[in-house]
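Dear colleagues,

As part of the handover before I leave the project, I'm documenting each prediction I ran so the next person doesn't have to rerun anything. This entry is a single chain, and its sequence is reproduced below.
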Amino acid sequence: MDNLQKIGLQETVGGKSLSIQTGTLAKQAGGSVTVHLGDTIVFSAATVAENAKEVSFVPLTSDYRERAYAAGRVPGGFFKREMRPRDKETLTSRLVDRPIRPLFPEGWNHETSIQSIVVSCDMQNDPDVLAITGASAALMLSDAPFNGPVGGVRICRVDNAFVLFPTWEERAKAELELVVAGKTDALLMVEGSSHEVSEEVFAEALEIAQKEINKLCAMQLELVKRSEAAGRKVERYVVAAPAIPAAVLELVKTKATEPIRKALRSKLDKHGLDAQIHEIKDGLKKEVEEKGKTDAAFADGLKWVSKIIENILYDESRILTLVDRVRPDGRGFEEIRPIEITLKPFPRLHGSVVFQRGQTQAFCSATLGTPGDMQIMDVLEGEYKERFMLHYNFPAFSVGEVRPERGPGRREIGHGALARRSLAVLLPPEEEFAYTLRVVSEIWESNGSSSMASVCGGSLSLFDAGVPMKAACAGIAMGLVLENGKYAVLTDIAGIEDHNGDMDFKVAGTRQGITGFQMDMKIEGLSIEIMKEALAQAKRGRLFILDKMDAVLPEPRKELSAFAPRLFRLQIPTDKIGALIGPGGKNIRRLIDTYGVQVDVEDDGSVFIAGVDPVGCEQAKAEVEALTIEAEVGKIYKGHVVSIKEFGAFIEIFPGKEGLLHVSQIDVKRVAKVEDVLKIGDEVEVKCLEVDPTGKIRLSRKAVLNPGSENDTPGPRRDGPPRERVGGGGRGGRR
């Protein structure tokens, strides 16, 4: 392996030059490549563990990391190094995993690791989508039994034209953004968001993306061919079917098939069906265990009972759908489970709802915060602030299980991101509604489609909070059963249909079009034709749910919750920011303490005042406006004395704005001592005489008492006889 030569392939994909290289880096890994687009480069390595493990799932891990050095940055934080994965890295790790996992054979039990590292970023091309192709290419060069290749592309619609591998600037202007992964002529994964585009535009984007995916797959096949020609041997593991003891298989199939078939046709809910399956399973486990004590054919049979029953349940549920054309709970293919909506289930929340669809229940709350509550996101391209957050929680009790809570996992982060992007495009612009928004979705019951329940509940909670969204948004999860050319597209899939089906396609949107979507396949690809059918069926389901939502809350509430902060936005000149903040933040702190508000000042001069008490907010707003008012020469102001010096008094004419009232300008008469006329706290009318270039203000009370007298020459300092001369008039002592 150490003698491998460098092999590189280049192809024009989506009008841009993309290349894949191998042969020089990480030669001890099972397979390694770099994928190049512009100066953005992602390194990917795939490795398979030598020893197998006793597991019931494909032990595949995918990790994507963005190194700060790739963008010429030093990581932030105390430790100055990359620590736990950021949400972007977690989401991209899922993006890589989802199209690749279905292409491993059942029974594969060697730990398989895919590592993708961003080693260079040109700040134009996002490296995330390159990791899909890189991971697939690395697996193709390894000994893993991977039935690839897979290619991944990002496609946007900008100014009514489709753009492949768009830059960040183009993505910011896009009305549609998709990440699509697939094999040659077959889709495996779709993810993205859009500004209410039609199903037809969505399908057109998929067709264009598929053509470019085919090029990426061809590149990888050629890469393997050239690597083998250069001396690399790719010998893949062969996965044998599990050797289930024939006697155990026969017994369980004979005794379990008919009861399972009957249970599936009994239109039971999740708990009822689970209870019957457990009863069947427990009875057979006891029987196999007893037989194993006397019959060697059953000695090792106990561990296979659950697997055999799972296989029977899988086969029978699919027969029920494809042959009998019925679903386990008795619904038609396009029938949606009963929907119940309860607004404001708890007091004091800004906006809240319990959204129930069948046995899936989401409690969603919307909270309005100030601009200071925005989340600071530290990503490869730099820091930015996130105004809208959606957090999805999936506690164990939602499915009747017990496990410790250790914070959000990959699935929770992914589901939250899907619901967030489905709603984000419908929010009012910050200029019109400056609140920071946080939606939390608590899944308290789950039997499928919990992320889409979060979309429906999230939309309703924002409406309930008075957020002026463009439109209501609903989500629906579509399923598919495909076998031997026959298929059925299912609307609003339940947990058993998700588990035993071939597709999980989530579509969210308004009456006008699609806003968010995510599709994952469990088989090796999906045709565009079936995808179009699923999209049309999803639209009908989405409109049905929107009717249910509109019947409860057809539009956002006109008034905010009494417990939500009132937010006022002002604009001040940037050169007045310092005056507003005051020395050491003195002025800001006084406003906060006096009126019970929160004040946030942006670099562009935007000032946000927030508080639950609208009167306090209005008073603070008036003070901020006054803080930025310029004194006008010749104008009379009413102020109060804030300090007294020997040479005069300082008068506050606006909040935080003081001017000097010199002793000579206090009265029309000569004033010997300032305290004889003024005391701290006195209210006094003064005229502005001058504002010098540094902003210092000179005031006159005398000009108010006797207009025009401010320029009079002062008289003698005090009355009385002339002072006695001292010193004898000489210049020094006489000698």
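The chain is about 30% helix and 30% strand. The CA atoms of residues 234 and 524 lie 22 Å apart.

All the best with the project,
I.
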